[in-house]
Design brief:
Jelly Rolls, 3 domains, 309 residues, nine-stranded antiparallel β-sheet
Length: 309
């Protein structure tokens, strides 16, 4: 559903419009309440779409930072889970009044995270902050340096005002941090109202990282502990678990990990040996790749905080 007072903002005509399965089924000029009857549909299990960049309460990780931020804005508001298409949205980051030729906006996930579907909404107020002419995307490598994200397919190829920018990667990249640099040939200011990293989870799976009461994984700085994870399926599926840990940590399964057919109602338990350095606390990410009945591919994940025992 969408409402466009003038018809110029979204390009689908003025008034209230309702679409069903990509087809407009209703349109009216005003916002008078209306009851619509939809045709019968079968029951569908919808996949879970997750934005790994979202930090709604702006605490902990993911943690946003920038090389410069206008005093009325905040890097954290670019990843607060909102994408407000307003003339002057309160949820935004800009580099207005920056002394630099260009600036970057970066996000630290706090734990290795798969990245494959990025979406960016740039802010354009028609004045001092405009849509960039181009932008660059980098991920932080294990060598501590920034590297271009490989295999990017962008829609649109170059940013346009009021248009969502979607970047699909040919292969998912596991990253601990991302950096966005938006560029204007004139050197003027840029802004971001939303930066998102989406993946599709498998609704048939339930994941756990076993912890004592309190929900923290007890680890020993400089030592090795055993961490147990579980994957439970509601219907038969093929799963492949992985335990992602921060840079400098080690995670080794106590048996060889292979794609495993998990029957309905069954649970796969995996034991991992986790070695942590002295830099604590951090987080662990249980990641499970699975396949659907057709060509669907899912990446399901949970994050568990770790703390010195």
């Amino acid at each position: 559903m969408l409402f466009d007072r003038s018809g110029r903002h979204y390009g689908h005509g003025a008034g209230l419009s309702v679409w069903l399965d990509g087809r407009r089924v209703h349109r009216q000029d005003d916002l008078v309440p209306v009851t619509l009857t939809m045709g019968g549909t079968g029951q569908h299990t919808l996949p879970r779409e997750v934005d790994d960049l979202a930090n709604v309460d702006q605490k902990g990780h993911p943690l946003a930072s920038a090389s410069y931020t206008f005093h009325l804005d905040s890097p954290a508001k670019a990843i607060d889970g909102q994408d407000l298409h307003l003339d002057t949205p309160s949820s935004r980051w800009t580099n207005y009044d920056s002394p630099h030729a260009d600036d970057w906006l970066a996000v630290d996930f706090g734990v290795p995270t798969p990245v494959s579907d990025l979406r960016i909404s740039f802010y354009d107020d028609g004045g001092g902050v405009r849509t960039p002419d181009s932008y660059e995307l980098h991920h932080l490598g294990q060598d501590g340096r920034w590297h271009p994200l490989p295999g990017q397919h962008r829609t649109p190829q170059t940013p346009r005002p009021g248009t969502l920018n979607r970047i699909l990667l040919e292969r998912a990249v596991t990253a601990t941090a991302l950096r966005l640099t938006a560029l204007r040939t004139s050197g003027g200011a840029v802004g971001v109202t939303a930066w998102q990293s989406w993946r599709t989870e498998d609704p048939r799976l339930t994941l756990t990282v076993e912890t004592p009461p309190g929900g923290l994984v007890p680890v020993e700085p400089g030592g090795t502990v055993e961490v147990t994870t579980t994957v439970t399926a509601t219907s038969t599926t093929v799963v492949s678990p992985d335990l992602l840990v921060p840079d400098g940590w080690k995670s080794l399964p106590q048996h060889t990990i292979r794609p495993t057919t998990l029957d309905a109602g069954k649970t796969l338990r995996t034991h991992w040996l986790v070695t942590a350095p002295t830099g604590l606390p951090r987080h662990l990410r249980l990641l499970v790749r699975s396949r659907g009945k057709t060509a669907e591919r899912f990446v399901t994940s949970i994050v568990a905080p770790a703390q010195a025992d």
